[in-house]
Amino acid sequence: MLLLLIDDQGEVWRGESRKLRDAFDSPFSGGEFIEYAIKNLGFVAVNVYGSSCQIRLRPKFLGDLTREALRRWLKDRRVERVVLSHFDSGWIDELIVPQALDMRLDALSPAQAARTDDFLLRSLPMEHAPRMVVDKTQVVVSDIMRSWPTLLREYDTSNLLRLLRVAFNEQFVIVQRPSGGDRVLFSEFGDQMYWRYDTWRECAIGAPISEQPDRAYGRWINESYKVAMGSAKPSYEAVDAILQWPDIGRARRRYRRILFPFQENQSGQLLFCGSVDDTNVDLRISPPRA
User: Fold this and answer.
1) Is the pTM value of this prediction over 0.70?
2) Could you give the domains of the chain?
3) Alpha carbon of 115 to those of 35, 71, 250: distances in Å?
4) How confident is the model over 56-90, as pLDDT tens digits?
């Protein structure tokens, strides 16, 4: 059996509970200290048993750095099943698959549950889609949207992606859902997307789109992209989101986006999302009283 402790800064301590006890000058010993660290200090304890593991944590005190370290550790191992033991007024044990851990932690986290109003979305009329300039030629994006089924039949994917990349001036994301899978993965970023986080961008290609600097926003985007991939038609939408950025904290982002779903093939399905920042988008205005 291997014991890991992950502290509130994301540092992993491998079977070194005694060293940790000394660092915290704790009178507790062995299992008592581990339980104390989980309940009061925001630590996560992981016991590994072959291809299975038990993860013990207190969702109320689970920080972003600790959660990210746990995610990285789990991603690098071939773990087939997880017993998630979480503490509130008492311990509750759940048997889950590793792929479901993020979603379950989101559901258990009070901070995540309280942010449901941070992400607002509204459909927009297709005819109001923006006009773009491609190779000095003005392109009416609404015409592309109306012609999308025909374009998919008559042009190959690479040509369509080239057109869309240029049209949205490097402010786009391309994602992929592999054939037979459920997870949606980052495939490509435009240079104007997430420019504040170059290190994260370098590691994000091939990662689930839910794993964004703001995890709650990532989960929300993931679900809305899945809806778009289930449609045969592009969608035009306004987004009013309040994001929790690692460096600046809470900040509002307002934009319009157009989602172009590609047809599924043997390797999976692609979705292109082009966006345009727009401070005129305001989905938080209360409707006038009658």
Assistant:
1) no
2) 2-111 (no CATH), 119-277 (3.30.450.20)
3) 29, 21, 11
4) 999 887 877 788 888 888 888 888 899 999 998 88
In whole angstroms, what is the distance from residue 203 CA to residue 201 CA?
5
Q: CA distances (Å), 286 to each of 123, 278, 282, 290, in order?
A: 17, 19, 10, 12
DSSP E strands in 28-144: the ranges are: 44-49, 52-57, 81-87, 91-96, 119-123, 131-134, 137-140
Beta-bridge partners for 13: 5
Distance of alpha carbon 166 from alpha carbon 159, whole angstroms: 11
The segments of the chain whose pLDDT lies below 70 read: 1-2, 7-10, 15-30, 110-116, 132-139, 286-290
Angle between helices 215-229 and 101-108 (to 10 degrees): 120
Longest dimension (CA), the chain: 74
